[in-house]
Amino acid sequence: MNWPGLIEQYKEWLPVTEDTPSLTLQEGNTPLVHLGKLSEKWGIDLHVKLEGANPTGSFKDRGMVMAVAKAKEEGKSILICASTGNTSASAAAYGARAGMRTIVVIPEGRIALGKLAQAKMYGAEILAIKGNFDEALEMVREVGQEDGIALVNSVNPYRLEGQKTIAFEIIDQLNKVPDVLALPVGNAGNISASWKGFSEYALKNNTKRPSLLGVQAAGAAPIVNNRIVENPETIATAIRIGNPASWKLALKALEESNGTILAATDEEILEAYQLLASTEGIFAEPASCASIAGIKKQVESGKLKKGSTVVAILTGNGLKDPETAISVNEHKAFLVPEDMESFWEDLKKGVKA
Length: 353
Ligand code: F0G
Known about the structure:
This protein has about 350 residues and is α/β, with parallel strands linked by helices. The chain is built from 15 helices and ten strands. The strands form two sheets. The chain has a six-stranded mixed beta sheet, with helices on both faces. Strands 5-4-3-6 form a four-stranded parallel beta sheet. Helix 7 packs across helix 9 and helix 12 crosses helix 13. The longest helix is centred in the middle third of the chain and has 17 residues, at about 190-205. The protein is globular and about 70 Å long. The model has no long low-confidence stretch (mean pLDDT about 95). The structure holds ligand F0G. Its EC number is 4.2.3.1. Pathway: Amino-acid biosynthesis; L-threonine biosynthesis; L-threonine from L-aspartate: step 5/5.
């Protein structure tokens, strides 16, 4: 099938008018991959949605294509956003595609290298501030009110509209609604959007809805602890957020879905990150792996029923954050030339044994 891109594919579900410009980088249609080994290990039927396969390497492209198309339709010429990295990469790419100026505000030194490289390559104007994401968002919310400027953070309702399409894809690929949908939570846009998608689908097709499992990083877990975190801290920089914009929407989604939100420590996140790559061949960025860490915790505490069908959203590509990947593997030395002869000898012996 020739995939037409997200807006064209899901136009009946989206606020598309005759005047909405066609805009796409062929986002969406990402793989849903079954994890055989982890399913067996945990006694569940576990699938992962590889959102890192989107054009800029994260789920943000789903919402961004919609937000940028609508900004263009409304005659705006400038896009602005605060970001922990992925939103800025996505805004910059779609901004370039749509011929718009893109301004991104990021916490200095706290975004993964690949994401910074993307924003630069796509030609965004980058404002690096001393503060964190929450402060950056406060800044752009104000300027985003100006005529001609579109604020493309997930407080922009078109972002959630685009992002809800992940629910339709999961149901189509799985041929049913999963029992549990697990995902990392930062600014809480994605959990709210996914729930909107499953709810709209359920209304139209009389299907059930999944139970949500939201996972925050322990050092940035305002929803779990029910209080704003002034200085959020975690290795998973994508979700280093202390005051999520869609907090209330997320709580509503969790309540309606009879869901759970929990926190995973950096150690648990990094363990899941390495487990996923080394046992299943899937390299997702640390924040994405919070979903896997959360599932493991739920399995171990007996709260996730054996045999459940679980989908985890792997929100971003592992290549975005090479620094973390290298640092967790620092103990693994490269083979040095002096080792080579004996290495090959041992290898041959091993094969014969
Ligand atoms: N996973 C990744 C890889 C992300 O980049 C984000 C958010 C999330 C999960 C959390 O999603 O905010 O909808 O709850 N990144 C934003 C950004 C904040 O600026 O790129 P959320």
